[in-house]
Amino acid sequence: MSTWLNRGVGFAVPLLIAFLVSAVVLLAIGENPLDTFSLMLTEGFGSPRRFASTLSAATPLLFTAVGTAICFRAGVFNVGVDGAFLIGGLAAVVAGFSLPAGLGWALVPICLTIAAVFGAAWLFIPGWLLAKLQVDEVVSTLMLNFIALAITGYLVNGPFLSRQSGNNVTPPVHEAAELSRLMPPATLHSGFLMALVVLVAYAFWTRRTPAGLEGAWVGLNRRFSRVVGVSVERTIILAMVLSGVVGGLGGAAHGLGQLHRFTDGFSAGYGFTGMAVALLAHNSPLGMLIGAVLFGALASAGTTIQLFSDIPLDLVNIIQGIVMIFAVIELGRITIRRRAKA
Amino acid sequence: MTTIALGATEIRKSYGSVRANQGISLSVGPGEIHAIVGENGAGKSTLMRVLQGIERPDSGHVTVMDRDVSFAGPAEALAEGIGMVHQEFMLAPDLSLLENLVLGDEPVKWGRGAFALIDWKAAEMQGRELAERIGIEVDWHRRAGAAPVHIQQFVEIIRLLRRGTRILILDEPTAVLAPQQVNELFDLLRRIREDGTAILFISHKIGEVTALADRVTVIRQGKLAFSAAVAETSGKEIASHIVDGANPVIDETKPGSPGEIVLDVRNLSADSVEKSHPLNSISLAVLAGEIVGLAGIAGNGQAELMEALCGLRSATGQVELAGKDMTGLDADRRREAGIGYISADRRHEGLAIEASIEENTIAGSHRTGPISNGIWVSRKAMKNVALERLKQLSVKYGTLRDPVGSLSGGNQQRVVFAREIAGSPQLLLVSQPTRGVDLNGIAAIHSILRDFRDAGGAVLLVSEELDELQLLSDRIVVMAEGRIVGALGADADRREIGRLMVMEGAGA
Questions:
Q1: pLDDT tens for each residue of B184-227
Q2: What letters, b where the CB count within 10 A reaches 16 and e where it falls short, cover B386-410?
Q3: B104 with B230, same domain?
């Protein structure tokens, strides 16, 4: 099917160019590019444990990519999934260590729900501002990211600071609140399965629910949507809130599954990498799965590759950076289209 | 002596696989008006773009004043004396007409470049002289945006003449004018012709062609289909060439049989968008089984009235649908209550042009049965509903998943009708239903409207084509400056309708 080909090309071309450029860089510093790339491949996918590490790194990206895609397909330029990720992550972790441990198995669903509610509330704000007052969502969500960073930074250094470590981290969550590891000792946790469920739910939502259809129409043509009786305001707010739910859940999965606590620097730019994934995948579920795994592989291979060779970690940054450039080009295209419509 | 003012020889131009011009030749001499007619998409615009130097032809050449030329860009065509009047006027609305006249080529009293002083007296003199020569009067100090449309058009023509235009191209210049204004424009063009200016006149109204032009050329599917002196042909012959020899389907006219009041509007007022008039205390009624035509020059509140009625624009006053109060309800609630809307802007409002034919056909019915149970959408039911609706209006399409933009204008419009009629609305608000639709498509859309009416539906119809309004409507209501200024029978004299259309909105 041609659309599948299209989606594949969305990542293939940027990756190919990225590897060509890195090959030039590697040659320049006197390394053999082929050896390096095959080492990266081995480190990313070579063994079940390495693959688990890749999937583990892909988990937060899956959440943030889906969160971004929900809004982008509705023409809502939400760049604030990172903020929802932070807020949801902190909310889940705080609940995870402050609620009584005696809640047992119920602790995880409670923490997840709290994270979802906080994430939803967080992005409801710019959604409401956009729908009711036409406040530009790019500005408001970008600003809210800084606010989220400042709030969580303050809380993790103040009220929620762990007395034991005193090192910009909260206390660890109760053991009962941790997401189970899927194949110890690898860090891959059930948050990855959650991410897959969210991805499938997204795919289902877009094609099989009235609100999902409306999201696409509002993204394509707001005037048309109004004519066929779709409330554009409601659709915008819903997209933001769902995006917040997914972002919040992503933060919760990261906190409860990966770190078991909240730290300063909780999100390593996951919101933005996820946005790049959504952009290059054109919001398609399968494309986002591929993209998140590829970025995950880069991240996990990058950290170990310098253990086994003289290749600096910066190589991974070069590759990621070049792929990002293509994401930005895609972003530019959407912006131009958006301006042409306004 | 010059024999060819502007000529095209064997022009070919393709965009990818679309062969827009396939060897078109035509010429216009000094002092000649040459009409170019053809359906939308026949290749008229491409040819004009080539003649103006905006597009380079793949092969063939352009002749100006008996010399072969090759334009590197539109500036060179302008320098050769080729000027175009677009459908959308190119005046700066906030400058005065005089400022617009000299903009870009101001007479200078003193200094040069950025330090020049403009000689406004000389400018006004030039304006007066030119206006006098072509026999019109212009208040040069009026703000362009506030001047009547036909005056704006005249100023645009004068501006081109002042810049040395010897070849004037007009792209459907009458679309925005009332009948009297059309006559004024034609008089003006005839006087310009006497001065030796060559005029290319693009139109799709055959009546105008026979009234004004010396020669007519029909373009069909990128090829020259017919060319003759107007004196030696007839409107009927021209029409038959436009639609490929076949006679266009002739509408049969049959009046409706009005019943109960369906739409009752009282004292409706609304704000305006820029350039247009607000709605000023509109009251009107539409009965079941009748088509009420809303006549008026474009931008006199018709679009706003339609939007206000279907809930897309907030308004004050009362709207009742079959006795039920609609005042203050949003578009979705009015839709549920039985108001269908055919937007004038098919590409940006009537359809989501990038979305599939399927989704465009069922949009609006996606929350209720059989497509949805309120939670989930059944793709299968969606497909069946779409197939059913498209079949009912015999829409021609490839597959349901194709983007609706891939259809022809007529079929796109049928998709809109298929969607809007499917819910059996009591009232259909129809705006410019046949704009950009080919002749056979027009006949089909007219019969859809008549069928809807004959089944007891009420229709409020807005069209800039007076012919169409008179053909379809049972009654005609005229709007000017946001008010209703008169109501007439469908067989009213065109001149009477025209007189009302240009009335200052002094109230009915």
A1: 889 889 988 888 899 998 887 778 888 889 999 988 888 888 88
A2: beebbeebebebeebeebbeebbbb
A3: yes
User: Is B431 in the same domain as B493?
Assistant: yes
- Indicate whether B181 and B271 sit together in one domain: no
- Among A83, A72, A77, smallest CA distance to A250 is for A83
3-state DSSP call for residue B141? coil
Average confidence (pLDDT) over A211-233: 93
The DSSP letter of residue B277 is: P
Q: How many domains does chain A have?
A: 1
pLDDT for B172 equals 81
Co-location of B29 and B86 in the same domain: yes
Least confidently predicted of A109-118, B253-262, B330-339: B253-262
pLDDT at B153: 87
CA distances from B51 to B32, B33, B88, B220 (A): 17, 16, 19, 18
Q: Which residue has the tokens 């000023």?
A: B280
pLDDT digits (tens, 9 = 90+) for A157-212: 888 888 787 678 899 999 888 998 888 888 899 999 999 999 999 999 999 999 99
Task: Report pLDDT for B504.
Answer: 54
CB pairs under 8 A between A and B: 69
CB contact under 8 A, B349 and A225: no
What is the model's pLDDT at position A314? Answer: 81
B185 in the same domain as B302: no
Report the pLDDT value the prediction gives residue B443, as an integer from 0 to 100: 82
Rg of chain A's alpha carbons, rounded to an integer? 20
Query: Would you call B335 and A225 a contact, using CB atoms and an 8 Å cutoff?
Result: no
Is the pLDDT reported for residue A6 higher than 60? Answer: no
- Residue B379: inside a domain: no
The CATH number of residue B332's host domain is 3.40.50.300
CATH number of the domain where residue A131 is located: 1.10.3470
Cα Rg for chain B, rounded, in angstroms?
25
Say which amino acid occupies A266: F
- Tell me whether residue B361 is in a domain: no
For residue B507, the model assigns a pLDDT of: 41
A221 touches B: beta carbon within 8 Å: yes
Q: Which residue in chain A has the smallest CA separation from B309?
A: A227
A chain contacts of residue B337, beta-carbon cutoff 8 Å: none
In a domain, B383, yes or no: no
Asked if B176 and B65 sit in the same domain, the reply is yes
CA gap A113, A108 in Å, rounded:
9
Q: 3-class SS at A222?
A: helix
Supply angle C-alpha B431, B155, B187, rounded to 5.
80
Whether A217 sits inside 8 A of B359 (CB atoms) is: yes
Same domain, B151 and B210: yes
Which of the residues A224, A231, A282 would you substitute to probe the B interface, choosing the one with the greatest number of B C-beta atoms within 10 Å? A224
Q: How many independent structural domains does chain B possess? A: 2
Cβ separation B335–A217 shorter than 8 A: no
Judgement on whether residues B24 and B137 belong to the same structural domain of the protein: yes
Per the structure, the complete domain to which residue B191 belongs is given by: 6-242
What confidence tens digit (pLDDT) does each residue in A64-94 have? Answer: 999 999 999 999 999 999 999 999 999 999 9
Supply the pTM of this predicted model.
0.76
- On whether residue B308 sits in a domain, the answer given is yes
| pLDDT higher than 70, residue A1 | no
- Write out the residue range of the structural domain in which residue A155 sits: 2-341
* Nearest alpha carbon to residue B388 among B406, B402, B373, B370: B370
Provide the pLDDT for residue B369.
78
Residues 222-261 of A with CB under 8 A from B: 223-231
